[in-house]
Amino acid sequence: MNKTIILERRPVGKPQLTDFKTTNDERPQIGPGEILLKTSYVSVDPYLRGRMSDAKSYAVPFQLHQPISSGVIAEVTESNLSGFSKGDFVSGLLQWKEYQKSDGLGLLKVDPSKAPLSAYLGVLGMTGLTAYLGLTEIGKPVKGETLVVSGAAGAVGSVVGQIGKILGCSVIGIAGTDEKVELLKSKYGFDGGINYNATTDMKKAIADLCPDGVDIYFDNVGGNISDGVLANINKFARLIICGSISVYNETTIPMGPRVEPLLIKNSALMQGFIVGNYAGKFPEAMQQLSTWLKEGLLTYSETITEGFDHIPQAFIGLFEGKNNGKMIVKTEQNNN
Ligand SMILES: NC(=O)c1ccc[n+]([C@@H]2O[C@H](COP(=O)([O-])OP(=O)(O)OC[C@H]3O[C@@H](n4cnc5c(N)ncnc54)[C@H](OP(=O)(O)O)[C@@H]3O)[C@@H](O)[C@H]2O)c1
């Protein structure tokens, strides 16, 4: 049989398990020019929340009662397509199905001998590319500058902070627990960190840790946290607006302070970022990330949930801060 996870209803507020449903069908048969794929690892990502609503955005909404899709690593189990052999592993935007067929379009072969398969969903996948391209293309770090990262212990944030250190910045991260803040410093080499859940005055907390002000802000969360950071920006600061997870579940977007005077006063750049806009730079970014990994300058964490059925729970966990680094589901459960 072949399980599929569909969007049963559009979430209102924080997603619930009842917003998803698992169906069971026959395994597909492949025809000429097709391959059969067995899902190995599934990426769950905050941006999928936007696709679960029917509001217009940069990515088309998921259809109700239809399979959800995201970044997936899959194994080729049958092939009628030249260039793909049984036993190959591929990455691509695929459906939340145990088995699915494909004509190979949009799939990228990945090599398990070069890196663990799950890394192609994180540091060597979409979130690593986001970190590298957002920081270098918009942040344009200069040695000695101060970089602040929100969502700092997550997949994107933890890589942003490390790249900031490689490029010579002083790096401060913001995360949701003391344990995560400790990890920022001990594992990723951040210079300091703030637990936003234990901080009542973010403006002051940033001022205390960034005595020279903030030159670059890599924003993964938006909302009140970002208001506190923005109050500390320097002249010619660059603000990379990558994500706003703190408001993804809001039914009405909360009002914050007006930012225009701050931007004018500081001649600052605030720019929205979508990684797909930089597709032409993926090969060079991937090359750089792989090199840093090989050289030991870059490290990464993964929170891996086991079992295909647990994909929705892992996705919901993103909004509860359950992950360190990249949140991934390994479809097969290890019963050892
Ligand atoms: N623009 C793009 O092209 C692009 C690409 C990839 C990702 N993104 C965005 O980048 C951000 C990070 O993505 P990711 O994949 O790396 O996810 P992630 O950071 O690995 O996971 C989400 C993290 O967000 C934090 N969080 C959850 N609710 C929060 C809240 N209300 N306030 C503050 N923090 C909250 C949690 O950490 P704590 O324990 O610290 O709260 C959680 O672990 C997301 O906003 C995502 O949408 C954008």
Quick structural summary:
This protein has 336 residues and is of the alpha/beta class. It has helices at 48-52, 126-139, 155-166, 178-186, 202-209, 223-230, 260-265, 282-295, 311-317; strands at 2-7, 20-25, 35-43, 69-79, 89-95, 99-102, 108-110, 146-150, 170-175, 192-195, 214-219, 233-241, 269-272, 302-306, 326-330. The two termini are 24 Å apart.
Put simply, the count of helices is 9
Helix content: 10-25%
Low-confidence segments, given as residue ranges, are: none
The shape, in one word, is globular
What's the N-to-C terminus distance? 24 Å
The total of beta strands comes to 15
Mean pLDDT metric: 97
Structural class: alpha/beta
Ligands bound here?
A: NADP nicotinamide-adenine-dinucleotide phosphate
* Biggest sheet statistics: 7 strands, mixed
Radius of gyration: 20 Å
Q: What percent of residues are in strands?
A: 25-35%
What is the chain-wise order of helices and strands? EEEHEEEEHEHEHEHEHEHEHEHE
